[in-house]
């Protein structure tokens, strides 16, 4: 996670030159210098070279690329650069792709129709460690989790301690580690230990995955109580 005062370094991976120029223009004009586009690429291969060279904080990544899937690229990026945040920026809206993107570790899923202010906020939130999922995207992810392979997802939250559940609840609200630590009066190291334990128990690797599972389980519990 970068500090609030630091410039957020962004790299764009999209095979459409016009899209890259448009996104760069929006970021430059709307971010007031808080975000810098440090590089561009039109394929996974050139994107990986650019990431290794520039080491961006946030990667804006399209799903359809000439040499493969952006979802596979997301896995590769995060395996080699686990501190980076990947935001999917695409024109494709599909329940399976949204679900797969989050499972692949993407920090968020954005449509290319997003307004300039929303894009800048999404990048800022991602760099701060927040999950970036709009309400409609969240509903897609939750639906896929609840109906995965036609089976009911077990309530993994029962595995968590009370403190782990409190931590996860705040993460699901979109709070950063710093904000969660302040709310629960926990040191940064203690909070990280709780998150590691939560991720292991839920069998996930990213905050967005854990948050989606929490919201899904909570909604299912509330629905069953109201029936």
Explain what this protein looks like in three dimensions.
The protein folds into 2 domains: 8-133, Rossmann fold (3-Layer(aba) Sandwich); 153-226, Orthogonal Bundle (Arc Repressor Mutant, subunit A), CATH 1.10.10.10. β4 (64-65) and β5 form a beta hairpin. The protein has helices at 17-30, 44-54, 70-80, 95-103, 116-127, 135-146, 162-172, 177-184, 188-202, 207-226; strands at residues 8-13, 35-41, 58-61, 64-65, 68-69, 85-90, 108-111. By secondary structure, the chain is α/β, with parallel strands linked by helices. Mean pLDDT is 83; it is low at 149-154. The chain contains 10 helices and 7 strands. The N and C termini lie far apart (42 Å).
Task: Give the class from helix and strand content and strand pairing.
Answer: alpha/beta
Strand order of the largest sheet: 2-1-3-6-7
Number of strands: 7
Strand content: 5-15%
* Number of individual domains: 2
Biggest sheet character:
5 strands, parallel
Oligomer: single chain
What name does the CATH topology of the largest domain carry? Answer: Rossmann fold
CA distance, first residue to last residue: 42 Å
Question: Which architecture name of the largest domain does CATH use?
Answer: 3-Layer(aba) Sandwich
Highlighted features:
Arc Repressor Mutant, subunit A, 2 domains, single chain, alpha/beta, five-stranded parallel beta sheet, 227 residues, 7 strands, Rossmann fold, 54% helix
Q: How do the helices and strands line up, and which of them pair or pack?
A:
Layout: E1 8-13, H1 17-30, E2 35-41, H2 44-54, E3 58-61, E4 64-65, E5 68-69, H3 70-80, E6 85-90, H4 95-103, E7 108-111, H5 116-127, H6 135-146, H7 162-172, H8 177-184, H9 188-202, H10 207-226
Parallel strand pairs: 1-2, 1-3, 3-6, 6-7
Antiparallel strand pairs: 4-5
